[in-house]
Amino acid sequence: MNSYFDSQTYFSYLLEHCTEEFSADGKGRLAGGRQLLFFLDQLDIRPEHATLEVGCGTGRVLTVLAERYGVEPHGVDPCRPAVDYLHRQHPDWAPRIAHVPDGVLTSLPGRFFDRIVFWGVFELTDQVRTLVEISRAARPGARILVNGVRNADFRDDDTAMAEAVAAYRDKRIPIMLTRIDRLEALMAFLGFSIDRRFIFLRKEDVVEDRFEADRDTTRFAEATYILSKSETVPADLDIAATAYESPHASSLEAATGLAKPES
After folding, report:
1. HSE toward the beta carbon, residue 5, CA cutoff 13 A
2. pTM of the complete model beyond 0.85
3. 169: burial class by Cβ within 10 Å (0-12, 13-18, 19+)?
4. Which listed residue, 81, 89, 131, 238, has the most CB atoms within 10 A of its CB?
5. Is residue 261 part of a domain?
6. To 5 degrees, how large is the angle CA 216–CA 222–CA 227?
7. Beta strands in 100-220 (DSSP E)
8. Rounded to an integer, what is the distance from CA 72 to the centroid of its chain?
C-alpha cells in the first residue's frame, strides 16, 4: 500500500475536500450530494442492514448512511489520522470504524455485510484483492456500490482525462486505470452479478452529473456499478488472480503506460 494514504498529508487533503458537508447541487472537486444520494438509493438500504463503507475517510458518506438510511455504519480506511479523527468526532461509531494499514482489506471486520459502499476510492485499491475480500465479506444477496472505476480505454477526445492521468503520474498518485472486460469477468467469477452499470463518457461528466445507465460501450472515462452477491464462491486470491488477468496489474507500466508509484 502506498504510504501516502496513511499520512498526515493525505488526511489534510481529506479534511479540505471530503468533509461531512457536501454540495447539494453536485458541483465541486468531488461528486456532490445529488449523485451520491442517487447511487446510494440504488442499494435499497434499510436500517437493519449491516452496512460497510470501504475508504470512509472523514465520515462524509458514513454520516449520510446513518442519517438518511438509519443504519449503524461500519467503515474501514488506510489512513490512521482519519480513523482517529472519526473516533473523536463520533465516539459511538468507534467500535465499528477500523484502520486497515495494508490497504487491501485483509483486516475487514469478521462478519457478513448486507450493503457495501465504495465511493471514489476503488481506483486506489488493489482491485483483485479488494474484490476477493468483498466476496468473502458480502452476505449472499448483498448489494454493493462500486464507484470510481477509471477506464484504461478512455476516449481519444477526452483531453481532461488524459491531462488527469499525466498529473497522477507526475504526482506519483497511485490511481489505477482498469481494464473493464477483465474487471467484469472477475466480478462474475467471484459470484457477483452486475445489476446496473452507469458510465460517464468523459471526465468532466463526473462533476456535471452526466451519466448513462446500461449503455453497451467500452470507451468511457469512468463507471459506477451496482452489484449483487448472487452466489457464494470460494474467495481464493491465487485462483482469482490466475483465472482472469488482474485489472490491477503488478506493473502499472504494463497495464497503463504509467510508472509504478513508490511505496
Report:
1. 24
2. no
3. middle
4. 131
5. no
6. 70
7. 113-118, 138-150, 192-200, 212-213
8. 20
Instruction: Identify the CATH number of the domain in which residue 37 sits.
Output: 3.40.50.150
What percentage of the chain carries pLDDT values higher than 90?
37
Q: In the chain, how many domains are there?
A: 1
Of the candidates 263, 224, 248, 254, the one whose C-alpha atom is nearest the C-alpha of residue 41 is 224
Output the nine-digit C-alpha cell for 100: 486497515
Rounded to whole angstroms, the Cα distance separating 103 from 83 reads 13
Helices assigned H by DSSP within 70-158: 80-89, 127-137
In a domain, 201, yes or no: yes
* Cell numbers found for residue 169: 503520474
Using one digit for the tens of pLDDT, what is the confidence trace for 33-91?
Answer: 788 899 999 999 999 999 999 988 888 899 999 999 999 999 998 888 888 988 999 99
For 202, how many CA atoms within 13 A lie in the half-sphere containing its CB?
9
